């Protein structure tokens, strides 16, 4: 899968980079994307920062105003709890309410005055607990009627709010019913109240506690106060006491997660944080926590705001910018494509003509339009093509003459060498054996010489093989039984056309480096096979092979220029043959030599169809 992706990507990259117009489109599109993307990113970050600053400022101001109203509301609770009549008379009535009817009536009137002194209906009930007797009086609204009842509550001293009020320097305690309502103390329904305010009434002379007055408030007024704080989706609001006890909250689990994370401990007691606090909730949501601490007693309004809600406007603007940027990019790509094509179309045509010229089509030419650099380049190209045609026409005939002259010279250089060896063989045979078969050798020699001086450059394989038989009859006269020949030539290659004397050159080299170097029998094998569009002609022997370093010299002479090589540096036959092959067939032919201590193998590769020779 990865390889397919890599190949696809490489193909796409190659296709894009193969045309100038694609490069221009890619370049300008990249610049536009970078500019639009950068501007959008910068504006998005600026909008985020401004949204954060504005949200902190507006929320802080809003919490400040609402918290003042809440503290005023709490101050009203405290004022209500203070005796509004002669305190000595109230203290006396509290002490004698159980035994004195007038005192009892005084206490009931005191409760009624406090209950009806509230203009709003936020009071659920008022309880007056007598510390010495454990009894209490209560006033509340029951079935649209205000009633005063009394009862016994011996468990009040064990309540935590009672102990807190007794131990408080201000003789008061606030009680929340949000997290727990088990310590209600009185026979009442705490679900109807959001908080209770307890006040200790003490003797002026002894400071001993005489009674505790408790006010139970419903949510009517506080709901009206906190509704001035706007709450959007995902936002929360908490009203906490100075010791972070919740009195108003909208979601208990969320509050508990803030407590568990230790965030509430970071709320400063001296005022609001200018930049708010950042909190990562367990649900992996990031919140901005803005809060306000009351100036009078330190009550706290806390408002966690999710950052994603803060950045909604910024995200909307960012997405709009991206959309506008995309439309602008599409328009720009269309314009860039149009103008790039206008610029690169003449270049493309010029490139095509140059490609035709490079493949050998010397009739290529391009249109010259305008007077700019491209027009100058086109004009120079046309002049180059014209001059090249003139040079080709002049050089073509010279090259043909030179080629034929080189071929004739190479053939002429082989003939004296072969003639010398043949005459030496005849002389040797005559001196040693004085046999009449010398006449046969002379006939073979005559036919061989006749074959060599024939004017043909290319012959059929059957003619070359017949020549090799005559040539080998002369060589066997020289070497006798030490020279053996095996021919393995495919019938379908008998009509193959190959350079004249090419096989003789290979066989002659096998005799020179094989038979002449040893006294044992040497077998020369000539074979030919076809593969694809080429014929492989192999001449091998089991002689000692080339001398060390000699093969490297021969192969090195193949690479040099024939005219620049010195006579003594050349392996005449093989170099001649290699040069003839290159002249006749070009790069479609090859001469390969492999040698070792067990013999030498020379392979001639030529095209079956002929090749580029003229």
From TrEMBL:
Alphabetical keyword list: Cell membrane, Kinase, Membrane, Phosphoprotein, Transferase, Transmembrane, Transmembrane helix
Ranges that cross the membrane: 24-44, 320-339
GO molecular function: phosphorelay sensor kinase activity
Subcellular location: Cell membrane
Domain (HAMP) ranges: 341-393
Listed SMART domains: HAMP (SM00304), HATPase_c (SM00387)
A cellular component term, taken from the record's GO annotations: plasma membrane
UniProt KW Kinase keyword: yes
Coiled coil: none
Keyword Transferase among record annotations: yes
Highest rank taxon of the organism: Bacteria
Annotated membrane topology: Multi-pass membrane protein
Protein's name according to its UniProt entry: Two-component system, sensor histidine kinase YesM
Source organism: Paenibacillus catalpae
Lineage summary: Bacteria, Bacillati, Bacillota, Bacilli, Bacillales
């Amino acid at each position: 899968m990865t390889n397919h992706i890599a190949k696809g990507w490489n193909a796409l990259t190659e296709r894009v980079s193969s045309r100038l117009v694609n490069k221009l489109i890619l370049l300008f599109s990249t610049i536009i994307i970078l500019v639009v993307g950068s501007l959008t990113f910068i504006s998005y970050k600026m909008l985020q920062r401004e949204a954060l600053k504005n949200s902190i400022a507006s929320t802080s101001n809003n919490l400040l105003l609402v918290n003042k109203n809440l503290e005023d509301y709490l101050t009203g609770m405290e004022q209500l709890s203070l005796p509004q009549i002669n305190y000595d008379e109230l203290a006396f009535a509290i002490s004698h309410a159980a035994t004195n009817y007038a005192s009892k009536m005084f206490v009931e009137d005191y409760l009624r005055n406090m209950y009806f002194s509230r203009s709003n209906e936020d009071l659920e009930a008022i309880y007056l607990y007598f510390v010495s007797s454990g009894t209490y009086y209560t006033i509340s609204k029951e079935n649209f009627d205000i009633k005063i009842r009394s009862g016994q509550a011996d468990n009040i001293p064990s309540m935590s709010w009672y102990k807190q009020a007794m131990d408080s320097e201000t003789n008061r305690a606030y009680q929340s019913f949000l997290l727990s309502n088990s310590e209600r103390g009185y026979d009442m329904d705490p679900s109807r109240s959001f908080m209770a305010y307890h006040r200790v009434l003490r003797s002026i002379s002894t400071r001993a506690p005489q009674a505790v007055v408790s006010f139970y408030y419903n949510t009517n007024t506080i709901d009206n106060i906190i509704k001035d704080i706007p709450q959007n989706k995902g936002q929360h609001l908490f009203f906490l006491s100075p010791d972070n006890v919740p009195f108003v909250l909208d979601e208990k689990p969320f509050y508990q997660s803030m407590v568990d994370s230790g965030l509430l401990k970071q709320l400063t007691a001296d005022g609001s944080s200018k930049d708010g606090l950042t909190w990562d909730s367990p649900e992996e949501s990031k919140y901005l926590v803005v809060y306000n601490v009351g100036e009078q007693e330190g009550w706290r309004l806390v408002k966690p705001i999710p950052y994603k809600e803060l950045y909604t406007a910024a995200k909307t603007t960012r997405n709009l910018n991206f959309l506008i940027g995309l439309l602008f990019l599409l328009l720009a790509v269309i314009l860039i494509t149009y103008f790039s094509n206008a610029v690169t179309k003449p270049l493309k045509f010029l490139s095509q003509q140059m490609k035709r010229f490079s493949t050998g089509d010397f009739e290529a030419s391009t249109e010259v339009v305008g007077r700019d650099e491209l027009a100058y380049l086109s004009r120079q190209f046309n002049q180059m093509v014209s001059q090249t045609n003139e040079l080709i026409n002049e050089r073509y005939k010279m090259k043909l003459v030179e080629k034929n002259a080189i071929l004739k010279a190479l053939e002429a250089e082989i003939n004296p060498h072969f003639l010398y060896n043949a005459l030496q063989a005849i002389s040797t045979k005559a001196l040693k054996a004085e046999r009449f078969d010398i006449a046969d050798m002379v006939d073979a020699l005559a036919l061989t010489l006749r074959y060599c001086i024939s004017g043909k450059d290319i012959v059929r394989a059957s003619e070359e093989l017949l020549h090799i038989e005559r040539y080998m009859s002369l060589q066997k006269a020289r070497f006798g039984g030490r020279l053996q020949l095996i021919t393995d030539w495919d019938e379908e290659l008998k009509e193959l056309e190959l350079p004249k004397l090419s096989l003789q050159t290979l066989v002659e080299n096998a005799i020179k480096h094989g038979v002449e170097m040893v006294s044992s029998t040497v077998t020369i094998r000539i074979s030919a096979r076809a593969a694809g569009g080429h014929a492989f002609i192999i001449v091998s022997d089991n002689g000692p092979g080339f001398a060390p370093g000699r093969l490297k010299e021969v192969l090195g002479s193949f690479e040099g220029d024939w005219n620049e090589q010195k006579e003594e540096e050349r392996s005449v036959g093989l170099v001649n043959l290699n040069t003839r092959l290159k002249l006749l067939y070009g790069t479609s032919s090859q001469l390969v030599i492999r040698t070792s201590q067990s013999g030498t193998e020379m392979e001639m590769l030529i095209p079956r169809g002929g090749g580029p020779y003229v």
